[in-house]
Amino acid sequence: MISSLPFAPLMAVFAVAAGVVIVCSLRATGLADVIADRTRLGEAIIGGTLLGAATSLSGTVVSVTAASQGDASFAISNAIGGIAAQTLFLAFGDLLYRRGNLEHAVAEPANLFQCVVLIGMLSLPLAAMTGPEVAIAGLHPVSVVLFLVYATSVRISAQMRETPMWKPTQTSQTRHDEPEDGAERHRSAAGPLMIFAALVCLMGAGGYAISQVGAELIQRYQLGSSLVGALITAVVTSLPELVTTLAAIRRGALQLAVGGIIGGNTFDVLFLVLSDIAYRDGSIYHAMQPDDVFWIAVGLLMTSVLLGGLILRQKDGPGGIGIESVLLFAIYIGAVVIQVFAQG
Q: Is the dihedral of CA 271, 124, 331, 218 positive or negative?
């Protein structure tokens, strides 16, 4: 059905699907803040797990669908391109937050730990690609390792919140994660969780529609899979992270905003695990193209810069934002220019 649509209706489907994903994610942000208070897990943990996974679902559907159709590059670049775009969104959040440097305000050990985990997880696909081509029932062992690393990191992050081994220096700009209403702690989280689940289903449906339009653009206009994946579908399916980040910052839920991006990025690496399962022509890591590796390198670089900013905690920077935000803008724009000219 998608393949028979003219260009204008095809783009209309794309726009409607993107709109559904964005609207649902905006509502999900408010619910995640309530759930964080009622479950007492905190904004950083809920943002990094529940909200991060939910807003990443549409991207997951795109990558898995592409892999099942045999387009490994589309699946990989959509996953990794989303990580780069979402990290950039924190720089936009820093622009919005005018009380100081966003990375200074969110002094939370769990965020630092998740950045370290993300760097490690992004390194594993590179190791798999350059190592022997091993697949058990079509699944590379690194996919199992990625899942175990993610699951373990979630558990450790929760422990770090409950019994932190160190605490950052508190300043006038530090934002504490405290419930806005103490009564929230005594109310059930079941209702918000059910609504949250319904929104997740809608975001998944939107992601499927976006994947079909992306695949059609690749086939109809002979576009590179990496170009479409990293710069079109990845950016569109990452828009929920931009919306939720800016909405959370406006609500004052800074830990939720930053934790949602970093946690969403670690969850995005799991796209590769699911894509490896869906890809039936062997290990998906050995089907990587140079452009896909390029975006993994960009993701590693941007995460390293973000981690440096979270540790440095600069109070004042150029234009009222931290130097790490300036570098994130420069790295991403440079990567896009290189990708576009390489395709040309």
A: negative
Pick the more confident residue, 251 or 117: 117
Query: Looking up tokens 């103490």, which residue turns up?
Result: 182
- Domains plus CATH for the chain? 2-343 (1.20.1420.30)
Sign of CA dihedral 268, 269, 274, 275: positive
Alpha-carbon dihedral sign for residues 10, 15, 16, 18: positive
Q: Which of 229, 227, 258, 228 is nearest to 328 (CA)?
A: 258
Taking the C-alpha atoms of residue 67 and residue 69, their distance in angstroms, rounded to an integer, is 5
What is the rounded CA–CA span in Å between residue 171 and residue 230? 38
Predicted TM-score (pTM) of the model is: 0.86
Place of tokens 């695990």: 273
Structure tokens at 124: 């594993």
Q: Which of 268, 239, 200, 340 is nearest to 14 (CA)?
A: 239
Residues in the chain: 344
CA distance 268 to 121: 10
φ, ψ dihedrals at 168, nearest 5°: -75, 155
Give the integer Cα–Cα distance in Å for 149 and 221: 39
pLDDT in tens, 290-333: 999 999 999 999 999 999 999 988 876 666 688 999 999 999 99
Confidence of residue 6 (pLDDT cuts 50, 70, 90): very high
Rounded to whole angstroms, the Cα distance separating 46 from 255 reads 9
Fill in the DSSP letter of residue 321: S
Helices (H), the chain: 7-39, 43-46, 52-68, 72-96, 102-105, 109-130, 141-162, 190-221, 225-228, 234-251, 254-278, 290-312, 323-343
Contact in structure between 53 and 267 (CB atoms under 8 Å): yes
pLDDT of the residue at 185: 57
Q: How large is the angle between the packed helices 234-251 and 254-278, nearest 10 degrees?
A: 160
* 139 and 282 Cβ atoms separated by less than 8 Å: no
